[in-house]
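Please check what follows.
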Amino acid sequence: MHQCWLCGSSDLTCVKPASLPATLDANAFRVTDASYGQCAAVDRCNACGFRQCSDFADVLGFYQEMDDPDYEATRGPRALQADRLLRAVQRHRPGGTMLDIGAGSGIMVDAANRAGYHAQGVEPSGWMVRQAVGHGLDVREGVLPMAALPGPYDVVTLVDVIEHVSDPVDLLVQARAVMAPDGIGMVVTPDVGSAVARAMGPRWWHYRLAHINYFDRTTIAAALAKAGLAPVATFSPSWYFTAAYLVERLGTYLPPLAKVRVAALDRVTVPLNLFDSVAVVFRRAEGVHAIR
């Protein structure tokens, strides 16, 4: 019998049936995968409201084997995203050491170094790590805990990573373990409780194979509390894409757009905020330990 990965309840109800590809491999776990609405069965916990893909708990191997050339091709706009997110961190900790968990090819690490931090990253994909190292960035291959990255760090970031793991509270516990006592953290994840997610229903673009859990603002706050962490600020972040990338992705829903090819669109970067992601800046909760 499955249990909720957040609260431990076994009172789960399937709210989205499985929609899996005929072949399941690492390609389906790319950041830029466009098979929107395709994911394992999503269960909702009737006790706490958390949503998870209970049958899809062991996916680390896919990430270890994953490459994503299209992700690197959009490095410029993604760097703008990282810069924007760092502004929220800088209000609370304008400098110091930083660890980016689930660092990909090091875009956030690069942005943090440029902003005056001394930044490192950790990432399970060997291909992503090789890209980061090629950019001269300190990103280590693996997952926490890692002896080579003991901390303490003044800043810890988890940007679009917590939705990929089957023990999200433990991931936050690991983040807390490497934070300095007065450190600041940031977690960013899709918001399944957002108006856009509810309106799109099963075709919401964040329903994808790589995402095996789904938070809203209430459940992410609960996860932080269980990990001995306290919110400092909560907001909906903006993202940046080339116009060509956006047109291509809209073609998933409006097929005629998929045929649009205008070279100039590659040179136009568009800010986008659909308010269907949530970012939380957090710190250690005073006098509180992780609940496991």
In short: The chain has two domains: 12-238+276-284, 239-272. The radius of gyration is 18 Å.
